Amino acid sequence: MNHQRYNDYYLVNDEDMGEDTDSIEFMPRQKCCTLKKCLIISAISFVSLAVLAFIVVFVIFPLVFQNSLSLQQDLVFTRWGLETNSTVFQILRFPEYKNYYVPVKDLATNETLKLGLWHILPFDLAKAAIYNDTYDYEDALKNSNYSVLLYFHGTGEDRSDNLRKYQFFRTFFHVIVFDYRGYGDSQAGTMLEKNIVNDCRQIYQWLQEKTSALLFVWGHSLGTSLAVSTLSQLGQEANTTGLILEAAFTSFAEELYHHPYVKYFRWLPWFKQTIVNPLRKNGFLFETSKHILNVTCPILFLHAIDDAVVPYFMSKQLYNISMQRNVDEEVKNNTQLVLFDKRLNLRHYFIYQDSYTIFYFYNFMRHFTGFPVSTNESSHQS
Ligand SMILES: *[C@@H]1O[C@H](CO)[C@@H](O)[C@H](O)[C@H]1NC(C)=O
Ligand SMILES: *[C@@H]1O[C@H](CO)[C@@H](O)[C@H](O)[C@H]1NC(C)=O
Ligand SMILES: *[C@@H]1O[C@H](CO)[C@@H](O)[C@H](O)[C@H]1NC(C)=O
Ligand SMILES: *[C@@H]1O[C@H](CO)[C@@H](O)[C@H](O)[C@H]1NC(C)=O
Ligand SMILES: *[C@@H]1O[C@H](CO)[C@@H](O)[C@H](O)[C@H]1NC(C)=O
Ligand SMILES: *[C@@H]1O[C@H](CO)[C@@H](O)[C@H](O)[C@H]1NC(C)=O
Ligand SMILES: *[C@@H]1O[C@H](CO)[C@@H](O)[C@H](O)[C@H]1NC(C)=O
Ligand SMILES: *[C@@H]1O[C@H](CO)[C@@H](O)[C@H](O)[C@H]1NC(C)=O
Ligand SMILES: *[C@@H]1O[C@H](CO)[C@@H](O)[C@H](O)[C@H]1NC(C)=O
Q: What Pfam families does the annotation carry (predicted)?
Protein backbone atom coordinates (compact mmCIF):
# COMPACT_ATOMS: atom_id res chain seq x y z
CA MET A 1 0.00 0.00 0.00
CA ASN A 2 2.73 2.36 1.04
CA HIS A 3 4.74 1.53 -2.04
CA GLN A 4 1.81 2.10 -4.29
CA ARG A 5 1.16 5.46 -2.79
CA TYR A 6 4.81 6.40 -3.21
CA ASN A 7 4.71 5.54 -6.90
CA ASP A 8 1.67 7.57 -7.45
CA TYR A 9 3.38 10.49 -5.81
CA TYR A 10 6.48 9.95 -7.89
CA LEU A 11 4.64 9.85 -11.18
CA VAL A 12 2.72 12.93 -10.52
CA ASN A 13 5.29 15.19 -8.97
CA ASP A 14 8.84 14.31 -9.92
CA GLU A 15 10.09 16.59 -12.69
CA ASP A 16 13.23 14.54 -13.28
CA MET A 17 11.67 11.47 -14.84
CA GLY A 18 14.73 10.13 -16.74
CA GLU A 19 13.70 7.66 -19.42
CA ASP A 20 10.16 8.77 -19.25
CA THR A 21 11.08 12.16 -20.80
CA ASP A 22 10.46 10.78 -24.27
CA SER A 23 6.90 10.01 -23.50
CA ILE A 24 6.54 13.43 -21.95
CA GLU A 25 7.90 15.08 -25.07
CA PHE A 26 5.69 12.90 -27.16
CA MET A 27 2.53 14.15 -25.52
CA PRO A 28 2.61 17.74 -26.78
CA ARG A 29 3.43 16.55 -30.31
CA GLN A 30 0.32 14.43 -30.30
CA LYS A 31 -1.68 17.37 -28.97
CA CYS A 32 -0.28 19.52 -31.74
CA CYS A 33 -1.39 16.99 -34.30
CA THR A 34 -4.88 16.63 -32.88
CA LEU A 35 -5.09 20.40 -32.79
CA LYS A 36 -4.15 20.61 -36.46
CA LYS A 37 -6.60 17.85 -37.28
CA CYS A 38 -9.23 19.60 -35.26
CA LEU A 39 -8.53 22.85 -37.05
CA ILE A 40 -8.71 21.24 -40.44
CA ILE A 41 -11.88 19.37 -39.59
CA SER A 42 -13.45 22.51 -38.16
CA ALA A 43 -12.40 24.51 -41.18
CA ILE A 44 -13.86 21.93 -43.52
CA SER A 45 -17.10 21.71 -41.55
CA PHE A 46 -17.26 25.48 -41.31
CA VAL A 47 -16.75 25.90 -45.04
CA SER A 48 -19.27 23.19 -45.89
CA LEU A 49 -21.76 24.67 -43.44
CA ALA A 50 -21.22 28.08 -44.97
CA VAL A 51 -21.66 26.68 -48.46
CA LEU A 52 -24.76 24.84 -47.31
CA ALA A 53 -26.14 27.97 -45.63
CA PHE A 54 -25.35 29.96 -48.75
CA ILE A 55 -27.17 27.46 -50.93
CA VAL A 56 -30.15 27.33 -48.60
CA VAL A 57 -30.43 31.11 -48.26
CA PHE A 58 -29.53 32.27 -51.73
CA VAL A 59 -30.59 29.37 -53.94
CA ILE A 60 -33.19 27.18 -52.26
CA PHE A 61 -35.06 29.97 -50.49
CA PRO A 62 -35.48 32.09 -53.67
CA LEU A 63 -36.62 29.01 -55.59
CA VAL A 64 -39.16 28.11 -52.92
CA PHE A 65 -40.23 31.75 -52.70
CA GLN A 66 -40.70 31.91 -56.45
CA ASN A 67 -43.15 29.04 -56.40
CA SER A 68 -44.91 29.48 -53.07
CA LEU A 69 -47.76 31.94 -52.99
CA SER A 70 -48.31 31.33 -49.28
CA LEU A 71 -44.69 32.20 -48.49
CA GLN A 72 -45.05 35.39 -50.52
CA GLN A 73 -48.25 36.24 -48.68
CA ASP A 74 -46.63 35.63 -45.29
CA LEU A 75 -43.59 37.75 -46.08
CA VAL A 76 -45.50 40.66 -47.63
CA PHE A 77 -48.28 40.69 -45.04
CA THR A 78 -46.19 39.72 -42.02
CA ARG A 79 -48.22 38.83 -38.97
CA TRP A 80 -45.86 36.92 -36.69
CA GLY A 81 -46.42 37.34 -32.99
CA LEU A 82 -49.38 39.68 -33.35
CA GLU A 83 -52.21 39.69 -30.84
CA THR A 84 -55.16 37.63 -32.08
CA ASN A 85 -57.25 37.29 -28.93
CA SER A 86 -60.45 39.28 -29.48
CA THR A 87 -60.92 39.82 -25.77
CA VAL A 88 -57.68 41.77 -25.65
CA PHE A 89 -58.90 44.15 -28.39
CA GLN A 90 -62.17 44.63 -26.55
CA ILE A 91 -60.89 45.31 -23.06
CA LEU A 92 -57.45 46.81 -23.63
CA ARG A 93 -56.40 49.33 -21.03
CA PHE A 94 -56.54 52.33 -23.37
CA PRO A 95 -58.80 55.24 -22.48
CA GLU A 96 -62.02 55.92 -24.31
CA TYR A 97 -62.23 53.83 -27.40
CA LYS A 98 -64.93 51.59 -28.76
CA ASN A 99 -64.36 48.28 -30.50
CA TYR A 100 -66.35 47.37 -33.62
CA TYR A 101 -66.46 44.55 -36.13
CA VAL A 102 -67.23 45.87 -39.59
CA PRO A 103 -68.48 43.41 -42.22
CA VAL A 104 -66.87 43.57 -45.64
CA LYS A 105 -67.62 41.45 -48.68
CA ASP A 106 -64.86 39.39 -50.25
CA LEU A 107 -64.23 40.35 -53.87
CA ALA A 108 -64.12 36.83 -55.26
CA THR A 109 -66.39 34.76 -53.02
CA ASN A 110 -68.96 37.30 -51.78
CA GLU A 111 -68.34 35.91 -48.30
CA THR A 112 -68.59 38.36 -45.44
CA LEU A 113 -65.48 38.96 -43.37
CA LYS A 114 -65.60 40.87 -40.10
CA LEU A 115 -62.75 43.31 -39.58
CA GLY A 116 -61.81 44.64 -36.16
CA LEU A 117 -61.94 48.42 -35.82
CA TRP A 118 -61.54 50.98 -33.06
CA HIS A 119 -63.07 54.38 -32.72
CA ILE A 120 -60.89 56.49 -30.41
CA LEU A 121 -62.39 59.72 -29.13
CA PRO A 122 -60.58 63.06 -29.40
CA PHE A 123 -59.08 64.14 -26.08
CA ASP A 124 -61.68 66.77 -25.34
CA LEU A 125 -64.57 64.38 -25.87
CA ALA A 126 -62.79 61.60 -23.98
CA LYS A 127 -62.75 63.86 -20.93
CA ALA A 128 -66.55 63.81 -20.95
CA ALA A 129 -66.83 60.13 -21.81
CA ILE A 130 -64.48 58.82 -19.16
CA TYR A 131 -67.02 59.08 -16.34
CA ASN A 132 -69.99 58.17 -18.50
CA ASP A 133 -70.78 54.49 -19.00
CA THR A 134 -73.58 55.27 -21.44
CA TYR A 135 -71.57 57.67 -23.61
CA ASP A 136 -72.84 57.52 -27.18
CA TYR A 137 -69.78 57.06 -29.41
CA GLU A 138 -71.77 56.84 -32.61
CA ASP A 139 -73.54 60.08 -31.90
CA ALA A 140 -70.25 61.76 -31.07
CA LEU A 141 -68.87 60.66 -34.42
CA LYS A 142 -71.92 61.54 -36.43
CA ASN A 143 -72.11 65.30 -36.11
CA SER A 144 -68.75 66.14 -34.82
CA ASN A 145 -66.85 69.38 -34.96
CA TYR A 146 -63.78 67.20 -34.91
CA SER A 147 -62.49 65.84 -38.16
CA VAL A 148 -62.08 62.08 -38.50
CA LEU A 149 -58.77 60.37 -39.23
CA LEU A 150 -58.67 56.91 -40.79
CA TYR A 151 -55.33 55.23 -40.08
CA PHE A 152 -53.77 52.55 -42.31
CA HIS A 153 -51.11 50.70 -40.31
CA GLY A 154 -48.02 49.07 -41.77
CA THR A 155 -47.28 45.38 -42.17
CA GLY A 156 -46.27 43.37 -39.10
CA GLU A 157 -48.54 45.43 -36.84
CA ASP A 158 -52.09 45.28 -35.55
CA ARG A 159 -54.35 48.05 -34.33
CA SER A 160 -53.18 47.69 -30.73
CA ASP A 161 -49.56 48.45 -31.65
CA ASN A 162 -49.55 52.23 -32.03
CA LEU A 163 -51.21 53.47 -28.86
CA ARG A 164 -48.84 56.40 -28.36
CA LYS A 165 -49.34 57.47 -31.93
CA TYR A 166 -53.10 57.49 -31.42
CA GLN A 167 -52.60 59.80 -28.46
CA PHE A 168 -50.94 62.22 -30.88
CA PHE A 169 -53.74 61.86 -33.44
CA ARG A 170 -56.53 62.36 -30.93
CA THR A 171 -55.39 65.89 -30.22
CA PHE A 172 -56.97 66.73 -33.57
CA PHE A 173 -59.28 63.91 -34.53
CA HIS A 174 -61.67 61.13 -33.95
CA VAL A 175 -59.27 58.30 -34.74
CA ILE A 176 -60.45 55.24 -36.65
CA VAL A 177 -57.98 52.36 -36.79
CA PHE A 178 -58.70 48.94 -38.19
CA ASP A 179 -57.02 45.64 -38.92
CA TYR A 180 -56.71 44.32 -42.44
CA ARG A 181 -58.05 40.81 -43.02
CA GLY A 182 -55.89 38.24 -41.26
CA TYR A 183 -54.40 40.84 -38.90
CA GLY A 184 -55.27 41.10 -35.21
CA ASP A 185 -58.71 39.62 -34.58
CA SER A 186 -59.98 40.48 -38.08
CA GLN A 187 -61.25 37.42 -39.90
CA ALA A 188 -58.81 35.68 -42.21
CA GLY A 189 -59.18 35.58 -45.97
CA THR A 190 -57.02 35.30 -49.04
CA MET A 191 -54.10 37.68 -48.53
CA LEU A 192 -53.86 39.46 -51.86
CA GLU A 193 -53.32 43.15 -52.44
CA LYS A 194 -56.50 43.59 -54.45
CA ASN A 195 -58.59 41.86 -51.77
CA ILE A 196 -57.20 44.02 -49.02
CA VAL A 197 -57.67 47.23 -50.98
CA ASN A 198 -61.23 46.13 -51.65
CA ASP A 199 -61.76 45.62 -47.89
CA CYS A 200 -60.26 49.04 -47.19
CA ARG A 201 -62.60 50.66 -49.68
CA GLN A 202 -65.57 49.18 -47.83
CA ILE A 203 -64.22 50.33 -44.48
CA TYR A 204 -63.93 53.83 -45.93
CA GLN A 205 -67.52 53.70 -47.19
CA TRP A 206 -68.71 52.39 -43.83
CA LEU A 207 -67.02 55.36 -42.19
CA GLN A 208 -68.53 57.84 -44.66
CA GLU A 209 -71.95 56.65 -43.58
CA LYS A 210 -71.09 57.03 -39.91
CA THR A 211 -70.07 60.67 -40.02
CA SER A 212 -70.59 63.96 -41.75
CA ALA A 213 -67.29 65.33 -40.47
CA LEU A 214 -64.27 66.00 -42.67
CA LEU A 215 -62.28 62.88 -43.44
CA PHE A 216 -58.50 62.66 -43.30
CA VAL A 217 -56.45 59.59 -44.08
CA TRP A 218 -53.04 58.71 -42.63
CA GLY A 219 -50.97 55.81 -43.89
CA HIS A 220 -47.67 54.46 -42.62
CA SER A 221 -45.25 52.30 -44.63
CA LEU A 222 -47.21 49.56 -46.42
CA GLY A 223 -50.32 51.38 -45.22
CA THR A 224 -49.42 54.38 -47.43
CA SER A 225 -49.81 52.21 -50.48
CA LEU A 226 -53.08 50.68 -49.31
CA ALA A 227 -54.42 54.14 -48.47
CA VAL A 228 -53.47 55.61 -51.86
CA SER A 229 -54.92 52.63 -53.76
CA THR A 230 -58.12 52.88 -51.74
CA LEU A 231 -58.55 56.59 -52.43
CA SER A 232 -57.58 56.11 -56.05
CA GLN A 233 -60.29 53.48 -56.51
CA LEU A 234 -62.89 55.61 -54.80
CA GLY A 235 -61.99 58.60 -56.96
CA GLN A 236 -64.33 61.55 -56.43
CA GLU A 237 -66.47 59.43 -54.13
CA ALA A 238 -63.72 59.51 -51.48
CA ASN A 239 -64.04 63.25 -50.85
CA THR A 240 -61.01 63.10 -48.57
CA THR A 241 -59.95 66.45 -47.14
CA GLY A 242 -56.29 65.58 -46.66
CA LEU A 243 -53.97 62.61 -46.98
CA ILE A 244 -50.87 62.13 -44.84
CA LEU A 245 -48.29 59.64 -46.06
CA GLU A 246 -45.59 58.68 -43.58
CA ALA A 247 -42.61 56.76 -45.00
CA ALA A 248 -44.23 56.12 -48.36
CA PHE A 249 -42.64 54.07 -51.12
CA THR A 250 -43.08 54.35 -54.87
CA SER A 251 -43.79 50.73 -55.74
CA PHE A 252 -43.15 47.33 -54.21
CA ALA A 253 -40.76 46.30 -56.97
CA GLU A 254 -38.59 49.36 -56.24
CA GLU A 255 -38.86 49.00 -52.48
CA LEU A 256 -37.61 45.40 -52.72
CA TYR A 257 -34.21 46.69 -53.83
CA HIS A 258 -33.92 48.81 -50.67
CA HIS A 259 -35.62 46.84 -47.93
CA PRO A 260 -33.09 45.99 -45.18
CA TYR A 261 -33.64 42.24 -45.43
CA VAL A 262 -34.42 41.88 -49.10
CA LYS A 263 -31.50 43.99 -50.28
CA TYR A 264 -29.02 41.21 -49.43
CA PHE A 265 -30.55 39.23 -52.25
CA ARG A 266 -30.55 41.91 -54.90
CA TRP A 267 -27.06 41.10 -56.25
CA LEU A 268 -28.19 37.59 -57.16
CA PRO A 269 -28.42 37.07 -60.92
CA TRP A 270 -31.75 35.34 -60.24
CA PHE A 271 -33.14 38.02 -57.89
CA LYS A 272 -35.53 39.43 -60.45
CA GLN A 273 -36.67 36.07 -61.67
CA THR A 274 -37.22 34.44 -58.27
CA ILE A 275 -38.31 37.35 -56.11
CA VAL A 276 -39.38 40.48 -57.99
CA ASN A 277 -41.29 38.91 -60.88
CA PRO A 278 -43.26 36.28 -58.91
CA LEU A 279 -44.54 38.99 -56.55
CA ARG A 280 -45.56 41.09 -59.51
CA LYS A 281 -47.20 38.10 -61.18
CA ASN A 282 -49.27 37.40 -58.06
CA GLY A 283 -50.46 40.97 -57.90
CA PHE A 284 -48.28 42.36 -55.09
CA LEU A 285 -47.70 45.62 -56.92
CA PHE A 286 -48.33 48.44 -54.43
CA GLU A 287 -47.83 50.92 -57.23
CA THR A 288 -48.28 54.11 -55.29
CA SER A 289 -46.48 56.16 -57.93
CA LYS A 290 -49.24 55.25 -60.38
CA HIS A 291 -52.30 55.46 -58.12
CA ILE A 292 -51.31 58.73 -56.52
CA LEU A 293 -52.15 60.49 -59.80
CA ASN A 294 -55.79 59.65 -59.09
CA VAL A 295 -55.79 61.22 -55.61
CA THR A 296 -57.47 64.60 -55.71
CA CYS A 297 -56.81 66.00 -52.23
CA PRO A 298 -53.75 67.76 -50.76
CA ILE A 299 -51.06 65.38 -49.54
CA LEU A 300 -48.54 65.77 -46.73
CA PHE A 301 -45.47 63.56 -47.15
CA LEU A 302 -43.45 62.85 -44.00
CA HIS A 303 -40.18 60.96 -44.18
CA ALA A 304 -37.13 60.65 -41.93
CA ILE A 305 -33.85 60.86 -43.81
CA ASP A 306 -32.42 58.06 -41.64
CA ASP A 307 -35.28 55.69 -42.46
CA ALA A 308 -33.52 52.40 -43.23
CA VAL A 309 -36.65 50.51 -44.23
CA VAL A 310 -37.96 52.85 -46.92
CA PRO A 311 -35.48 55.34 -48.38
CA TYR A 312 -36.61 58.96 -48.25
CA PHE A 313 -35.93 59.63 -51.93
CA MET A 314 -39.13 57.71 -52.59
CA SER A 315 -41.23 60.34 -50.83
CA LYS A 316 -39.40 62.98 -52.87
CA GLN A 317 -40.32 61.15 -56.05
CA LEU A 318 -43.93 60.76 -54.98
CA TYR A 319 -44.10 64.44 -54.10
CA ASN A 320 -42.79 65.26 -57.54
CA ILE A 321 -45.38 63.00 -59.17
CA SER A 322 -48.20 64.37 -57.06
CA MET A 323 -47.27 67.90 -58.21
CA GLN A 324 -48.01 66.74 -61.75
CA ARG A 325 -51.55 65.71 -60.88
CA ASN A 326 -54.41 67.16 -62.82
CA VAL A 327 -55.88 69.03 -59.81
CA ASP A 328 -56.59 72.61 -58.71
CA GLU A 329 -53.64 74.84 -58.00
CA GLU A 330 -54.85 75.13 -54.42
CA VAL A 331 -54.56 71.38 -53.91
CA LYS A 332 -50.98 71.49 -55.22
CA ASN A 333 -50.18 74.49 -53.06
CA ASN A 334 -51.25 72.53 -50.01
CA THR A 335 -49.30 69.44 -50.99
CA GLN A 336 -46.12 69.36 -48.94
CA LEU A 337 -43.02 67.31 -48.34
CA VAL A 338 -41.36 67.33 -44.91
CA LEU A 339 -38.05 65.53 -44.48
CA PHE A 340 -36.70 65.00 -40.96
CA ASP A 341 -32.99 65.44 -40.28
CA LYS A 342 -31.15 62.22 -39.50
CA ARG A 343 -29.82 63.69 -36.26
CA LEU A 344 -33.37 63.51 -34.91
CA ASN A 345 -33.06 59.73 -35.05
CA LEU A 346 -36.71 59.21 -36.02
CA ARG A 347 -36.11 56.38 -38.50
CA HIS A 348 -39.05 54.37 -39.80
CA TYR A 349 -41.44 54.57 -36.87
CA PHE A 350 -41.00 57.65 -34.75
CA ILE A 351 -41.83 60.75 -36.79
CA TYR A 352 -44.89 61.38 -34.64
CA GLN A 353 -42.62 61.67 -31.58
CA ASP A 354 -40.70 64.67 -32.86
CA SER A 355 -41.85 67.83 -31.13
CA TYR A 356 -42.01 69.75 -34.43
CA THR A 357 -44.23 67.24 -36.21
CA ILE A 358 -47.29 68.72 -34.59
CA PHE A 359 -46.45 72.11 -36.14
CA TYR A 360 -45.91 70.72 -39.63
CA PHE A 361 -49.16 68.97 -39.18
CA TYR A 362 -50.92 72.08 -37.92
CA ASN A 363 -49.55 73.99 -40.88
CA PHE A 364 -51.02 71.39 -43.24
CA MET A 365 -54.37 71.32 -41.44
CA ARG A 366 -54.92 75.06 -41.18
CA HIS A 367 -55.72 75.30 -44.90
CA PHE A 368 -58.91 73.36 -44.47
CA THR A 369 -62.16 74.88 -43.34
CA GLY A 370 -63.75 73.18 -40.41
CA PHE A 371 -60.46 72.61 -38.62
CA PRO A 372 -61.78 72.50 -35.08
CA VAL A 373 -58.80 72.93 -32.81
CA SER A 374 -58.79 76.44 -31.45
CA THR A 375 -58.58 78.04 -28.06
CA ASN A 376 -62.35 78.21 -27.76
CA GLU A 377 -62.96 74.65 -28.94
CA SER A 378 -63.40 73.32 -25.43
CA SER A 379 -66.39 75.63 -24.98
CA HIS A 380 -68.30 73.31 -27.35
CA GLN A 381 -68.08 70.46 -24.91
CA SER A 382 -68.79 69.51 -21.36
C1 LIG B 1 -57.91 36.09 -24.20
O2 LIG B 1 -57.59 37.10 -23.30
C3 LIG B 1 -58.37 37.08 -22.11
C4 LIG B 1 -58.03 38.33 -21.32
O5 LIG B 1 -56.67 38.57 -21.27
C6 LIG B 1 -58.08 35.81 -21.36
O7 LIG B 1 -58.87 35.77 -20.19
C8 LIG B 1 -58.43 34.63 -22.25
O9 LIG B 1 -58.10 33.43 -21.62
C10 LIG B 1 -57.70 34.72 -23.57
N11 LIG B 1 -58.19 33.70 -24.46
C12 LIG B 1 -57.39 32.90 -25.13
C13 LIG B 1 -58.03 31.91 -26.02
O14 LIG B 1 -56.17 32.96 -25.03
C1 LIG C 1 -71.29 37.87 -55.97
O2 LIG C 1 -72.47 38.69 -55.96
C3 LIG C 1 -72.73 39.34 -57.20
C4 LIG C 1 -73.93 40.20 -57.05
O5 LIG C 1 -74.11 40.60 -55.72
C6 LIG C 1 -72.91 38.29 -58.31
O7 LIG C 1 -73.09 38.96 -59.55
C8 LIG C 1 -71.69 37.38 -58.36
O9 LIG C 1 -71.93 36.35 -59.30
C10 LIG C 1 -71.41 36.76 -57.01
N11 LIG C 1 -70.18 36.00 -57.08
C12 LIG C 1 -70.04 34.82 -56.49
C13 LIG C 1 -68.71 34.16 -56.64
O14 LIG C 1 -70.91 34.31 -55.84
C1 LIG D 1 -73.63 60.23 -20.96
O2 LIG D 1 -73.72 60.16 -22.38
C3 LIG D 1 -75.03 60.14 -22.88
C4 LIG D 1 -74.96 59.91 -24.38
O5 LIG D 1 -73.87 60.56 -24.95
C6 LIG D 1 -75.70 61.46 -22.55
O7 LIG D 1 -77.03 61.47 -23.03
C8 LIG D 1 -75.70 61.63 -21.03
O9 LIG D 1 -76.22 62.87 -20.70
C10 LIG D 1 -74.30 61.50 -20.49
N11 LIG D 1 -74.34 61.48 -19.05
C12 LIG D 1 -73.64 62.31 -18.29
C13 LIG D 1 -73.76 62.15 -16.84
O14 LIG D 1 -72.93 63.20 -18.79
C1 LIG E 1 -69.95 72.45 -33.10
O2 LIG E 1 -69.58 73.81 -33.05
C3 LIG E 1 -70.67 74.71 -33.10
C4 LIG E 1 -70.13 76.11 -33.06
O5 LIG E 1 -69.07 76.26 -33.94
C6 LIG E 1 -71.62 74.45 -31.95
O7 LIG E 1 -72.75 75.27 -32.07
C8 LIG E 1 -72.05 72.99 -31.94
O9 LIG E 1 -72.81 72.71 -30.81
C10 LIG E 1 -70.84 72.08 -31.95
N11 LIG E 1 -71.29 70.71 -32.07
C12 LIG E 1 -70.85 69.75 -31.27
C13 LIG E 1 -71.39 68.37 -31.52
O14 LIG E 1 -70.01 69.93 -30.41
C1 LIG F 1 -59.40 56.77 -60.78
O2 LIG F 1 -60.61 57.29 -60.30
C3 LIG F 1 -61.74 56.98 -61.09
C4 LIG F 1 -62.95 57.65 -60.48
O5 LIG F 1 -62.74 59.00 -60.30
C6 LIG F 1 -61.93 55.48 -61.16
O7 LIG F 1 -63.01 55.18 -62.02
C8 LIG F 1 -60.65 54.84 -61.68
O9 LIG F 1 -60.79 53.44 -61.66
C10 LIG F 1 -59.48 55.25 -60.86
N11 LIG F 1 -58.25 54.75 -61.40
C12 LIG F 1 -57.51 53.85 -60.77
C13 LIG F 1 -56.24 53.47 -61.44
O14 LIG F 1 -57.81 53.36 -59.70
C1 LIG G 1 -67.53 66.47 -49.88
O2 LIG G 1 -67.03 67.29 -48.87
C3 LIG G 1 -67.55 68.61 -48.90
C4 LIG G 1 -66.87 69.36 -47.81
O5 LIG G 1 -65.51 69.29 -47.95
C6 LIG G 1 -69.05 68.58 -48.71
O7 LIG G 1 -69.56 69.89 -48.81
C8 LIG G 1 -69.65 67.71 -49.76
O9 LIG G 1 -71.01 67.55 -49.51
C10 LIG G 1 -69.01 66.34 -49.77
N11 LIG G 1 -69.52 65.58 -50.86
C12 LIG G 1 -69.88 64.32 -50.73
C13 LIG G 1 -70.32 63.64 -51.97
O14 LIG G 1 -69.85 63.73 -49.67
C1 LIG H 1 -39.66 66.85 -60.59
O2 LIG H 1 -38.55 66.27 -61.26
C3 LIG H 1 -38.15 66.96 -62.41
C4 LIG H 1 -37.04 66.22 -63.10
O5 LIG H 1 -36.52 65.24 -62.30
C6 LIG H 1 -37.71 68.37 -62.02
O7 LIG H 1 -37.34 69.09 -63.16
C8 LIG H 1 -38.85 69.06 -61.34
O9 LIG H 1 -38.45 70.33 -60.87
C10 LIG H 1 -39.35 68.25 -60.16
N11 LIG H 1 -40.56 68.88 -59.63
C12 LIG H 1 -40.76 69.05 -58.33
C13 LIG H 1 -42.05 69.69 -57.96
O14 LIG H 1 -39.95 68.71 -57.50
C1 LIG I 1 -50.51 78.96 -55.00
O2 LIG I 1 -49.21 79.43 -54.63
C3 LIG I 1 -48.73 80.44 -55.46
C4 LIG I 1 -47.30 80.74 -55.07
O5 LIG I 1 -47.14 80.69 -53.68
C6 LIG I 1 -49.63 81.66 -55.35
O7 LIG I 1 -49.16 82.68 -56.21
C8 LIG I 1 -51.04 81.26 -55.76
O9 LIG I 1 -51.93 82.36 -55.56
C10 LIG I 1 -51.51 80.08 -54.95
N11 LIG I 1 -52.78 79.65 -55.48
C12 LIG I 1 -53.83 79.36 -54.73
C13 LIG I 1 -55.07 78.94 -55.46
O14 LIG I 1 -53.80 79.44 -53.52
C1 LIG J 1 -63.22 82.08 -30.74
O2 LIG J 1 -63.07 83.23 -29.90
C3 LIG J 1 -62.93 84.42 -30.64
C4 LIG J 1 -62.69 85.55 -29.66
O5 LIG J 1 -63.01 85.17 -28.36
C6 LIG J 1 -64.18 84.69 -31.48
O7 LIG J 1 -64.02 85.87 -32.22
C8 LIG J 1 -64.38 83.50 -32.43
O9 LIG J 1 -65.60 83.66 -33.15
C10 LIG J 1 -64.44 82.22 -31.64
N11 LIG J 1 -64.48 81.10 -32.58
C12 LIG J 1 -65.36 80.11 -32.47
C13 LIG J 1 -65.26 79.02 -33.48
O14 LIG J 1 -66.15 80.04 -31.58
A: Hydrolase_4
13 falls within a domain:
no
Domain count, the chain: 1
Distances in Å between the alpha carbon of 157 and those of 152, 163, 183? Answer: 10, 12, 8
Q: Name, in order, each residue with C-beta under 8 angstroms of 98's C-beta and a sequence gap of 6 or more.
A: 118, 119, 137
Q: How confident is the model at residue 6 (pLDDT cuts 50, 70, 90)?
A: very low
298 C-alpha to ligand 8 centroid (Å): 14
Q: What is the tens place of the pLDDT at every residue in 115-169?
A: 999 999 999 899 989 989 899 999 999 988 899 999 999 999 999 999 999 999 9
CB atoms within 10 A of CB 271: 18
In a domain, 305, yes or no: yes
Q: Is residue 76 one of the residues assigned to a domain?
A: yes
DSSP-derived secondary structure for 168-193 = HHTTTEEEEEE--TTSTTSPP----H
Question: For 72-117, how does the pLDDT look when each residue is reduced to its tens digit (9 = 90+)?
Answer: 999 999 999 999 999 999 999 889 999 999 999 998 899 999 999 9
Domain CATH code at residue 125? 3.40.50.1820
Q: In a mutational test of the pocket of ligand 9, which residue from 373, 374, 375, 376 has the highest number of ligand atoms less than 8 Å from its CB?
A: 376
Residue 39, domain member (yes or no): no
Atom of ligand 6 nearest to the CA of 237: 13
Nearest residue (by CA) to ligand 1, atom 10, is: 85
Tell me the residue range of the domain where 315 lies: 71-380
